[in-house]
Fold this sequence. Notes:
Radius of gyration: 42 Å
Strand order of the largest sheet: 2-1-3-7-6-5-4
Strand content: 5-15%
Distance between the termini: 93 Å
Order of helices and strands: EEHEHHEEEEHHHHHHHH
Amino acid sequence: MSDRHPRAAWRRRPEPPPVDSPSRPPPAEPSVVQSTLYRDGRRVSSPTTLADTFRQLREHPDGMAWIGLQRPTEEELHSLAAEFDLHELAVEDAMEAHQRPKLERYGDTLFVVLRAARYLDAPEEVDFGELHVFVGPDFLITVRHGDAPDLSAVRRRMEENPGLLALGPEAVLYAILDAVVDGYAPVVAGVQNDIDEIETEVFGGDPAVSRRIYELSREMVEFQRATRPLVGMLHALMAGFAKYGTDEELQRYLRDVADHVTHTSERVDGFRQALTEILTVNATLVTQEQNAEMRALAEAGFEQNEEIKKISSWAAILFAPTLVGTIYGMNFDNMPELHWAGGYPFAVVLMAAVCTSLYVVFKRKDWL
Length: 368
């Protein structure tokens, strides 16, 4: 970051048309959250429009403007770009949003993209927001896409510490970085609690836990995309301490933020690994449960088959005497054994022999 200095010659150009010019209808909902001018770490004024901010900053070239916008219009961004000579690529990124965290330097202006996160207790999910920051010699512009982060607390903190705020836009950038990284802590705690609950549900056999694991894994992918690039960004800023003459207090401040984001990034990596392992364990448990159900069905089928064997065997055994009795009970006159004195004993012995033979056969086949 460069030392603060009066507004350069390229800044002294005709004032652009006011954003509320009659030829340009104002947006239905103003997106300027707050516009404030500071001098020596103290608030000087709070202009209500961008045009007033531009005018007052020209009148006081030793001051600093802090402009906060949320979901700005294309007209507002072009007005800022014309006033502060913002690079068109950075402005295009700020318009479209959905950018990955990055740090780009365009001359004297630093463009930073951050992904903030917050944990929503009711739905038990992580909500991500996007923040674009333009840092110049005497201005800082924040463009928010989403509800996170809440920069009002950062503004109050800086205004309560005029000595830090007097260090210029660089100090505000580091305070914003610190706020974004500190906002990750409740998310980490919430995710850790979710993982603990998921582990209980997995071993409790909850059938809906697979979907919860998948959804949380997707959130961790987004969380990883927010934190991992930030580690490199902060190290890149630290590498430029000597080149841009960064204040020693800010150097300590940034190193502390870098330590926090490194710790958070490692925790997020651990969460992804843990969720992958939990998903594997859950799949194993589900497979085991399905195998147990299939085994139970097979055992039930085997038992049913054994019962059918027994029933069939006894049916066959009982069918034999029924067949013999039916034949000898037809009472035809021409039946040779009808008037035989030994016919009855013969029929009884025949039935007993057939039944005994069938019983022995079925017994040997383990049907009985």
